[in-house]
Amino acid sequence: MPTSNIALRLGRLADAASIAVMSRELIESGLGWSWTPARVVRSIRNRETVTLIAADGARMVAFAIMHFGDEHAHLNLLAVRPSHQRKGIGTRLVDWLTESARVAGVASISLEMRAANDGARRFYRALGFDDDAFIPGYYRGREMALRMTRELRPANLQPVQWSMPKKS
């Protein structure tokens, strides 16, 4: 299936239910449902969060939600329908969000994922993320998470501090 027909766009309130269902089925399976439609709506409305959709015509095939802070961004969710996996769509979403983070001056992006999800771990490593920490019981006290981080600028590069010149 060619991915040239796949367009990226910002998420809309009308996408919330579909995002929530995809999250429940593809990410939160076996854990309960924390990314409900109401939570996704709050995320879409949050000015510090970007919800990005990959669509094949009118059909959503993937999405990502990332929160942007001043120095740090956090990839909350990323899901690609099984029929569209391994076609570069997830990479396109992460690349778009990463470039947005760079432009915004963000120093790093982090995420948590199920520690046992070897496929996701390989995917994120290929995109420049490194293992950061294992977090026991992260998922409802039952499952361990792996936190991964990607640095976007060299650690020795500090933000510029501006000051007014002294009066002479």
Computed structural class: alpha+beta
Uncertain stretches of 5 or more adjacent residues = none
Portion in beta strands: 25-35%
- The ordered string of helix (H) and strand (E) elements is EHHEEEHEHEE
Please describe the biggest sheet, giving its number of strands, its sense, and whether it closes into a barrel. 7 strands, mixed
The chain-level mean pLDDT equals 90
Shape: globular
Tell me which oligomeric state these chains represent.
Answer: single chain
- Please state the CA-atom Rg, rounded to the nearest Å: 17 Å
Sheet with most strands: strand arrangement: 1-2-3-4-5-7-6
Helix count from the secondary structure assignment: 4
* Termini Cα gap: 68 Å
Describe the structure.
With 168 residues, this protein is α+β, with helices and mostly antiparallel strands. Helices cover 27% and strands 35% of the residues. The protein is built from 4 helices and 7 strands. The protein has a 7-stranded mixed β-sheet with strand order 1-2-3-4-5-7-6, with helices on both faces. Helix 1 (16-27) packs across helix 2. The longest helix has 15 residues, at 89-103. The protein is globular, with a radius of gyration of 17 Å. The N and C termini lie far apart (68 Å).
